[in-house]
């Protein structure tokens, strides 16, 4: 693709940029700075890779506006290089477009409502009462159970399952192997025997939500499990029944939420963070990796450790813990001196 077309695309998307170079060159793919070829575009957001900028063979580099004259190759100066890189990468690597197609091996119930330009791949199952709006893409082997609704432009990955009566908004991505709306861990014990509690709630997912590979989102036990608009959820995350995720939140891989926990808006959760059940997290809270959250968080900020405390306090404690052995030796020496003086 000629570079001037990429520049036009960015302008159409409201990107304010300064360009230095020849806009007639071909740019066909993205790459890292150190391995890029002359027909590839790269970017720089971390100064520790600054040396690569001097030797890169990339045809185009996306940089922050403050980095004027930082490279000899053609470059774009923008406010947010990573965002602009994402736009360019999307342009050069378009998703497989949805089209008005149903594979002969798919099973689509006669009562299902399928909108225009919906792609239904091999061995897909669409059950009774399902409604799929226009432009959605269902990859091979996925199952959409009865009375579930999919909004416009949704993409459901291979072998993903959307269980019955769930609701997805527009532009929702469900990656391969995810299970949305499966039964949660609802059991009652009587005299040592476990009795299953029917899970009668649903899963409600807002607009512009992305859910990663092999994520499990359990349906509500009585009320619904809810994921609000503009959330992104990484691979292998588990949301138990009745969890609510506030809009704009981001959750990294292998995080786990026990039942009925509420995460506020615009929160970030790093990898392997665990949440106890029935707790509430306010807006704009950020959890560092492997934090264990056992209580309500009512003040915005960064938290870490187990049980999770403010990250600044956790960092101080971590330094002190590393000094415990030295402190113990000092106490032992002092005790020895006291014993000598006492005798």
UniProtKB/TrEMBL annotation:
Alphabetical UniProt keywords: Acyltransferase, Lipid A biosynthesis, Lipid biosynthesis, Lipid metabolism, Repeat, Transferase
Catalytic activity field: a UDP-3-O-[(3R)-3-hydroxyacyl]-alpha-D-glucosamine + a (3R)-hydroxyacyl-[ACP] = a UDP-2-N,3-O-bis[(3R)-3-hydroxyacyl]-alpha-D-glucosamine + holo-[ACP] + H(+)
Pathway(s) where this gene product acts: Bacterial outer membrane biogenesis; LPS lipid A biosynthesis
Domain UDP-3-O-[3-hydroxymyristoyl] glucosamine N-acyltransferase non-repeat region: 25-91
Stored CDD domains: LbH_LpxD
Matching InterPro entries: Hexapep, LpxD, Trimer_LpxA-like_sf, UDP_GlcNAc_AcTrfase_non-rep
Enzyme Commission number(s) from the entry: 2.3.1.191
Database matches in SUPFAM superfamilies: Trimeric LpxA-like enzymes (SSF51161)
Pfam (any one): LpxD
Catalytic residues identified in the record: 241 (proton acceptor)
PANTHER family: UDP-3-O-ACYLGLUCOSAMINE N-ACYLTRANSFERASE, UDP-3-O-ACYLGLUCOSAMINE N-ACYLTRANSFERASE 1, MITOCHONDRIAL-RELATED
Family named by the database record: Belongs to the transferase hexapeptide repeat family. LpxD subfamily.
Functional note: Catalyzes the N-acylation of UDP-3-O-acylglucosamine using 3-hydroxyacyl-ACP as the acyl donor. Is involved in the biosynthesis of lipid A, a phosphorylated glycolipid that anchors the lipopolysaccharide to the outer membrane of the cell.
Description of how the protein assembles with itself and partners: Homotrimer.
Name of the featured protein: UDP-3-O-acylglucosamine N-acyltransferase
Organism phylogeny: Bacteria, Pseudomonadati, Pseudomonadota, Gammaproteobacteria, Thiotrichales
Gene assigned in the entry: lpxD
């Amino acid at each position: 693709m000629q570079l001037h077309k990429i520049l036009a695309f960015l302008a159409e998307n409201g990107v304010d940029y300064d360009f230095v170079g020849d806009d007639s060159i071909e740019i066909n793919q993205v790459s890292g700075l150190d391995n890029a070829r002359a027909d590839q575009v790269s970017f720089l957001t971390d100064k520790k890779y600054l040396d690569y900028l001097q030797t890169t063979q990339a045809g185009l580099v996306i940089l922050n506006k403050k980095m004027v004259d930082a490279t000899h190759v053609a470059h774009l100066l923008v406010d947010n290089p990573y965002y602009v890189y994402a736009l360019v990468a999307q342009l050069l690597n378009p998703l497989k477009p949805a089209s008005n197609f149903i594979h002969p091996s798919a099973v689509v119930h006669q009562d299902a409502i399928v909108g225009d330009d919906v792609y239904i791949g091999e061995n897909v199952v669409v059950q009774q009462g399902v409604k799929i709006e226009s432009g959605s893409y269902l990859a091979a082997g996925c199952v959409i159970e009865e009375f579930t609704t999919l909004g416009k432009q949704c993409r459901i990955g291979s072998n993903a399952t959307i269980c019955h009566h769930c609701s997805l908004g527009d532009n929702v991505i469900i990656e391969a192997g995810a299970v949305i709306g499966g039964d949660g861990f609802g059991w009652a014990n009587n005299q040592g025997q476990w009795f299953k509690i029917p899970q009668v709630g649903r899963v409600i997912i807002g607009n512009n939500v992305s859910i990663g590979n092999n994520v499990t989102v359990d349906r509500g036990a009585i009320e619904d499990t809810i994921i609000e608009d503009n959330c992104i959820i990484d691979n292998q995350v588990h949301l138990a029944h009745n969890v609510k995720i506030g809009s704009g939140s981001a959750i990294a891989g292998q995080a786990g939420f026990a039942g009925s926990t509420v995460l506020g808006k615009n929160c970030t959760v790093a990898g392997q963070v665990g949440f106890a059940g029935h707790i509430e997290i306010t807006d704009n809270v950020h959890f560092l990796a492997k934090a264990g959250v056992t209580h309500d968080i009512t003040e915005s900020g960064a938290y870490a450790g187990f049980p999770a405390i403010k990250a600044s306090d956790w960092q101080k404690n971590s330094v002190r813990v590393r000094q415990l052995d030295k402190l113990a030796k000092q106490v032992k020496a002092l005790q020895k001196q006291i014993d000598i003086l006492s005798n």
